[in-house]
Structures are given as structure tokens and as C-alpha cells.
Amino acid sequence: THTHTHAKAQIGLRQSTSLTAMAAAAAASPLSLLRSCRALRACPFVAHVALRRPGRHFGAPITLLPSHTRPLRQITSAVDEEAAARAAAASAESGGPTIFDKIISKEIPSTVVYEDDKVLAFRDISPQAPVHVVVIPKVRDGLTQLGKAELRHEVILGHLLYAAKLVAEKEGILEGFRVVINCGASACQSVFHLHLHVLGGRQMKWPPG
């Protein structure tokens, strides 16, 4: 019995040492904490871990993040999206063609939902809702983003919104849909040719991400 008790104590000591090391690593940065919290939650007897050393105290206990916190992969994806948006913003200064120009010229295929002489609407290749359609002006005319709009763009801006309504009507979501315009790298605009996202087919949440 004494041997069995001693063995259990040794196992518990190793677990405690491992958890303390994990917590110390996690304290280095918020991202490290996110990486460690899943492993910490796997141990049923851990509610929080305090970093202590004889004679010293390293601050308040590290409390585990709630289970509804965004998974690390989502945070990593968001960081990647922001980096891609900033790279696209840098290249937009050259005024060169974008992927949308190739879609307009049919060089790149797309699933067209609506088209007239001024705008083109096509399905997003990475839909964020059952209905996700991108609406773009066929002529960019310096309108790389909404923040660059000038008085001469007034007509096309109104027509883009009207086209968004026509798309919603064609897709059967006229009773409830969302129109999104990402403006600039901070809003994760990835193509610097002004465009609207028309989303619907599910209950939208508020506030958006």
C-alpha cells in the first residue's frame, strides 16, 4: 500500500510540474496561452494554475479561457487574412489589373448570378453563407475601395446597391439579407476593386466579426 501511494504521489508531482511548465510558457504571450489552454483543459483537476516559487509570487493565477473562445485556427486564419489584405493594398497602388478584371473579361470563369452593362454579380468561391454573391462594377475608374469614392462615382455606387437588391430577389432572400463592403486592409479587403458582398440564407448575427 505504501508503494502504491508513493507511486501515485510521484505521478501527481510529475503532472503538477508539467502543468506549471505549460503555464509558465503560456504566460510568455497571449498566443502561447491559447495554444496551451486546450491541453490544460484536458486535465480534469485543473481550474487554474498559479506560478509560484519559494519566496516569490509571479502575479495572479492564470485562469483558463472560457470554452467559447475562438479556436486558435480561427485566430491564425484572421492573421493570415489581414496579412493578405495588406499585401493586396500595397499592390493596389500600382493600379494594375486585379482578379476581378480577369473575371469580367471571362479569362477566369465564375458563376454569374446577375449582369448588366454596368455591374457583374457572381458567386463567391469561399461562401460565408448559403447565399454569398459578390457584386462589382465592370469599370473600376479609380474606385479601388469605398474610401476612394468621388462625386463622379455617385451613379455607379447607387447602381451597385440596386444590383444587390436584384441579386437578393433572384436568390429568394429578399426578406432578409446583408450587404457588406470591406474598405481597406484593416477591414480585410482582399481585392482592391470596389465590391459588395450579398449574404443570406441563414440568420445573421450582430455585431459582425
UniProtKB/TrEMBL annotation:
GO terms for molecular function: adenylylsulfatase activity. It comes from the Eukaryota. A motif (Histidine triad motif) lies at residues 193-197. It holds the Pfam family HIT. The active site is at residue 195. Residues 99-209 form the HIT domain. SUPFAM superfamilies: HIT-like. PANTHER family: HISTIDINE TRIAD HIT PROTEIN. This is Zinc-binding protein.
